[in-house]
Amino acid sequence: MGTLLRLTVFIFVLGALAAGVGAMLVQERQRQHILERMVATPRAETAPPDRADDILLLRELHARSQRALLLYGGLALGCVLILAVLPPRNPASAADHSPTPAAARTEMRGLESLARATAAQRIELDRERDARHRSEENLNLQQLLTNRALQEKIHLGRDLHDGLVQTLYAAGLVLEAAGQRLAAPAADPAEAARLLERAKTTLNAAIREARSAIGELSPDVLSGQSLADAVATILDHLDGGRLLGRRIELSPALPPLPDATRTELLQVIREAVSNALRHGAAKTIEIDFTPLPDQRLRLVVRDDGHGFDPVAVTRGRGLDNLAARARALAAQLLIDAAPGRGTVITLTLPAPVGII
């Protein structure tokens, strides 16, 4: 109760002092206005009665200010005395509100229980977060493995199509040519035997490629052949006695190629030559591989086959594989073909970094 009374008296004192200060400011403004008027108006232009009235008004305002100052000063002093004589808060009543030892112990036990419950909840939340994090990591790992397996499957299928399938097809062409030699009116057993030996060599190469595909190794890299020899071997396997002429021009200025780049290029050559023989019935194959002045390399495979319409043709794995290998090499693939004339496949790829 004492505190409330003190607060009330204090608010009253503040209000009275604010009212007094406001009244004194109003009176002071009036005095200032009268003084400005008297100074601005010359004595000769002012009638004596008006000037006397202004002087009386100034005196009255001064007297009012003195009285107001005394009144509000006395009021403030009285309020201060009242606050001084008011009794302080009863210590006994304050002691009544202080907790007893038993209540304090009960409160402490409640706080301890709350702290233990909070700690337990935090531990449980940490466990749930860790479990969720592990689950997310497992899902990401499974997704990564799935994507990797899919990419490996696509790569294996592409290699089998461009490698093993083409080699088996070449063996079939050689066997067909041997059969024609034996069925001809003027049979040539020696030539047929030579073709059969080539078919045997081609089939052995197919077996090696199958083993290499299973072991995820490139047969062209493992063979240790030069690039020119590897290209010649590809033509030998795919020829089957059908080609009347072939030309392989590899520039001496070509830089050494990484194994991955070399393998992709050989597969592109294999696919282009196989398409020319199987679908275009080509009799001549020309292969040029040269460096360009702008730090790029250009591979050109040209044939004199029947050609095709690149827009109307039904795309198979061959053209798709060519496009995929071009993307793997960051190369530009251009197929110039039309019905009734040969096909030119141009692959322009960046030179290996640091080579040229």
Structure commentary:
The protein is an alpha+beta fold and 356 residues long. The chain folds into 2 domains: 86 residues; 205 residues, Heat Shock Protein 90 (2-Layer Sandwich). The chain is 68% helix and 10% strand. It contains 9 helices and 5 strands; from the N terminus they run H-H-H-H-H-H-H-E-H-E-E-H-E-E. It has a 5-stranded mixed β-sheet with strand order 1-2-3-5-4, covered by helices on one side. The longest helix has 83 residues. It is elongated and about 155 Å long. The protein starts with a helix and ends in a 6-residue tail after the last strand. About 3% of the residues have low confidence.
Classify the fold: give the CATH topology of the largest domain: Heat Shock Protein 90
Span from first to last CA? Answer: 98 Å
Task: Provide the CATH top-level class of the largest domain.
Answer: Alpha Beta
**Secondary-structure content class:** alpha+beta
CATH superfamily of the largest domain: Histidine kinase-like ATPase, C-terminal domain
> What is the second-level CATH architecture of the largest domain?
2-Layer Sandwich
Regions with little confidence, pLDDT below 50 for 5+ residues: 91-95, 216-222
What fraction of the residues are assigned to beta strands by DSSP? Answer: 5-15%
Q: What string, H for helix and E for strand, traces the elements in order? A: HHHHHHHEHEEHEE
Summed over residues and divided by their number, the pLDDT gives a mean of 76
**How many β-strands, per DSSP?**
5
* Estimated helix fraction: 55-70%
Tally of distinct domains: 2
- Largest sheet strand order: 1-2-3-5-4
What's the shape? elongated
Calculate Rg over CA atoms. Answer: 53 Å
Q: What is the count of helical runs? A: 9
- Biggest beta sheet summary: 5 strands, mixed
